[in-house]
Write a sequence for this structure.
């Protein structure tokens, strides 16, 4: 039982065990997890030298003002020198980290508040977005994370709020521009209330009006350059974009109050009971099962509401749920989790950028490139199509051939899936014709594909 | 733990390995020579620029900066019938219209009248009228009746199988890859490890069989080389696999990038152009089978009739459907066009939907796949009697 708990701690809460880690966890699996709950914003050393979003955005927009060819070259650089290396550094950080629960929560929340390279212009800033808007809040307050993401230039650009204008704002009237409701809708549907959270089209439109003026300082007309000073890559509220007058969101009236309207509205949404329910379901799905038990969802929902959305408290409630500890192989790993846990198992991360990116692409989950604002799916059936399983198997077979020959498959099996290994898997690892095939069978095994 | 040496001495293991060598797939005769392809455009395709209603007096006022210009103007629509045109980037489709192989269904959508991408896509694919109303997809349910023994008629191209194709019926899958193929001995060992885990053993078996079927028809790395573009795998892989006499008969393909909240002119020019080119390459790869083919292009919903503040459009209910192929009785528009007047718009903002996609899809399954209506009504699209299958969409088979 204890070792099954260690397996769950290492895999469901962590990112898979490194050599020796399972033994270390076994004495106190719950304590090992709760020990990682800290409101200190710890950026892994691998990620500390990457530029801030403000620097990146300033650079991109300075290039843009010089001309399209400068912009093109700056974007190319942003991908080559920032985005791709940061994907690799982040993966390596996840392979090496001794705080994998914290890192899993970063992944969970970054996926909840997805931004993606599908919007090309934001690509170079996605790593920075995660460092700036997600990381500091994963054990803090949900409301703060919601405010941070909704203010972040990367999110504002990803969901087009930087180009949303109140029809009766100064710019709206002068240039005949209107609303873009993309951010407003997705905050309601995907970040807070959920699609069945009880809002209407009119709430979407009103919320979009509330958020008008929320943009960043990356673009300036010639006149505004004088008035607002030089371009910068930080949040900026522009009164001349903002729809004047009162708005009504979810039956509550918001009198004209500039930027503060949006802040107040987001705080309302963070406190809304539908949000607690939506977040509780999503957490339970990630940590318990694709279709989690109602009682567990209710417990998380209550913890969320009673703590005012304090995510450290919610995490502690989660760790305390019996349902989390009852079925060690309930969830299927995503391709990203599979890559990270495989390389953690053998403490190996000497892989080229090209190989990392190729592996993620082949398996259909390159970091920072979720196909839609809903983020990556979190159910087995979304990841275990025949083709995607075959790509996993082929990659595992290929990577196993590249690992050091000194690795002992039986020992690695014991240190990863030892507590849950089936007789069949154990037998087949032992019967494999070579060490590399033994490793590949281990990594492809049901016990290793799940968490 | 067992040691390697100990197990190698166990003759039983070795014998067992020998007995689970992969069975070659037996081909049954296909129950039909007709081909279907379903193309799902994710994000909400804007029907107005796709087939611009250039003669509608409200068209330009609603979209002062993004309306596709009228025929004869610069970058103007290609006229089709004096009222509606074709986006200029879709020029390759004009010839198909002229040859009566392109049928355009205006103001069409699913039965879902809200504006969430994810619920809309779910309704489009699950085949009930309710988000998450079924766990499997309507096409997979149709395949339950169409599949004949080992013969798999459904083909999903791409890394993941879209919901519309998921369910109990077995389907052929294909995705391009540059990874080295795992050898048969290894996969056989793995299959043995997977016994007792139904999800993994089923997926592995399906993948091995798909690989077997596709070998000889498709090269693994095909569609990952040469010019990029997401329609390449549709056009090449689906075309070639469907063309094969022993191959599947119904392909599903999904493509993203249609959520045009900003800068729509540029993005749609590119997207519509790539889609049109992809469809034409699909035709070429099908060869003579094109004459027996019907392709339907669908999206989860349409977009607002008016442009938004960012030279784009927001989510709106009424969209569009296209039917294309040698089997289609095309060269025309069907469905009521409600117009763009303020009173005609749905909730004062979207194109009013007048055709439910299910009338098209049901007709496809009945007329091209020979499914009986009772099965379609009871199983494939339950509770859909109020939207009966359309007649006359196809040339007589």
């Amino acid at each position: 039982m204890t070792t099954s708990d260690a397996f769950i701690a290492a895999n469901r809460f962590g990112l898979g065990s490194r050599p020796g880690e399972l033994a270390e966890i076994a004495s106190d699996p719950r304590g090992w997890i709760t020990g990682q709950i800290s409101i200190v914003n710890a950026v892994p050393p691998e990620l500390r030298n990457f530029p801030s979003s403000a620097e990146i955005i300033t650079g991109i927009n300075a290039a843009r003002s010089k001309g399209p060819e400068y912009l093109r070259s700056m974007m190319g650089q942003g991908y080559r020198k920032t985005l791709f290396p940061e994907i690799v550094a982040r993966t390596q950080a996840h392979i090496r980290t001794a705080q994998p629960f914290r890192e899993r929560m970063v992944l969970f929340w970054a996926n909840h508040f997805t931004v993606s390279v599908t919007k090309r212009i934001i690509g170079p800033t996605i790593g920075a977005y995660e460092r700036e808007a997600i990381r500091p809040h994963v054990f803090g307050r949900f409301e703060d994370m919601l405010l941070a993401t909704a203010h972040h230039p990367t999110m504002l650009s990803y969901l087009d709020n930087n180009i949303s204008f109140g029809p009766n704002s100064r710019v709206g009237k002068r240039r005949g521009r209107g609303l873009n409701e993309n951010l407003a809708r997705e905050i309601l549907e995907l970040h807070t209330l959920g699609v069945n959270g009880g809002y209407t089209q009119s709430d979407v439109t009103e919320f979009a009006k509330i958020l008008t003026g929320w943009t960043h300082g990356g673009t300036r007309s010639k006149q505004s350059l004088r008035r607002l000073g030089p371009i910068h890559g930080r949040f900026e509220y522009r009164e001349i974009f903002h729809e004047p007058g009162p708005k009504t969101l979810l039956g509550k009236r918001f009198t004209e109050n500039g930027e503060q309207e949006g802040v107040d509205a987001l705080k309302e949404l963070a406190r809304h009971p539908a949000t607690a329910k939506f977040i509780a379901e999503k957490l339970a799905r990630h940590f318990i099962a694709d279709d989690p038990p109602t009682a567990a969802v209710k417990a998380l929902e209550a913890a969320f509401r009673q703590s005012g959305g304090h995510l450290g408290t919610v995490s502690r409630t989660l760790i305390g749920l019996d349902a989390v500890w009852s079925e060690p192989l309930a969830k299927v790993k995503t391709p990203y989790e599979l890559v990270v846990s495989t390389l953690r198992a053998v403490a190996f991360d000497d892989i080229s950028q090209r190989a990392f990116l190729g592996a993620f692409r082949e398996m259909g989950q390159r970091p920072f490139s979720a196909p839609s604002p809903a983020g990556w799916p979190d159910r087995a059936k979304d990841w275990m199509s025949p083709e995607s399983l075959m790509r996993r198997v082929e990659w595992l077979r290929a990577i196993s051939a590249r690992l050091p020959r000194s690795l002992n498959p039986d020992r690695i099996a014991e240190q990863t899936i030892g507590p849950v290994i089936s007789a069949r898997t154990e037998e087949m690892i032992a019967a494999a014709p070579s060490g590399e095939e033994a490793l590949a069978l281990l990594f492809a095994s049901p016990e290793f594909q799940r968490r | 733990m067992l040691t390697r040496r100990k197990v190698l001495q166990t003759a039983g293991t070795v014998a067992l390995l020998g007995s689970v060598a992969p069975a070659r797939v037996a081909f049954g005769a296909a129950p039909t020579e007709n081909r279907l392809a379903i193309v799902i455009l994710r994000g909400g395709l804007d029907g107005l620029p796709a087939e611009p209603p250039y003669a509608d007096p409200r068209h330009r006022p609603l979209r002062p900066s993004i309306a596709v210009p009228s025929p004869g103007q610069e970058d103007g629509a290609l006229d089709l019938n004096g009222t509606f045109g074709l986006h200029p980037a879709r020029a390759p489709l004009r010839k198909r219209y002229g040859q009566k192989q392109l049928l355009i269904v205006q103001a069409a959508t699913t039965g879902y009248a809200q504006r969430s991408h994810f619920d809309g896509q779910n309704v489009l694919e699950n085949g009930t009228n309710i988000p998450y109303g079924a766990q499997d997809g309507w096409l997979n349910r149709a395949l339950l009746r169409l599949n004949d023994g080992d013969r798999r008629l459904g083909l999903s191209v791409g890394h993941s199988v879209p919901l519309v194709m998921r369910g109990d019926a077995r389907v052929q899958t294909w995705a391009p890859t540059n990874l080295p193929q795992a050898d048969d001995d290894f996969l056989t060992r793995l299959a043995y490890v997977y016994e007792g885990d139904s999800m993994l053993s089923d997926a592995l078996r399906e993948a091995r069989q798909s690989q077997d079927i596709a070998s000889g028809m498709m090269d693994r790395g095909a569609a990952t080389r040469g010019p990029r573009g997401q329609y390449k795998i549709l056009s090449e892989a689906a075309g070639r696999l469907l063309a094969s006499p022993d191959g599947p008969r119904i392909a599903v393909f999904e493509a993203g990038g249609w959520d045009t909240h900003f800068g729509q002119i540029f993005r749609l020019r590119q997207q519509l152009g790539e889609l049109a080119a992809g469809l034409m390459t699909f035709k070429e790869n099908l060869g003579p089978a094109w004459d027996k083919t019907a392709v339907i292009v669908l999206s989860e919903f349409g977009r607002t009739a008016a442009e938004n503040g960012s030279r784009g459009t927001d989510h709106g209910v009424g969209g569009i459907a296209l039917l294309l192929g040698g089997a289609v009785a095309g060269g025309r528009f069907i469905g009521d066009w409600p117009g763009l007047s303020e009173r005609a718009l749905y909730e004062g903002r979207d194109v009013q939907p007048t055709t439910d996609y299910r009338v098209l899809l049901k007709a496809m399954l009945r007329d091209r796949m020979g499914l009986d209506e009772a099965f379609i009504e009871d199983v494939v699209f339950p509770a859909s009697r109020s939207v009966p299958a359309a007649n006359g969409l196809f040339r007589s088979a």
Notes: Chain A has a mean pLDDT of 95.
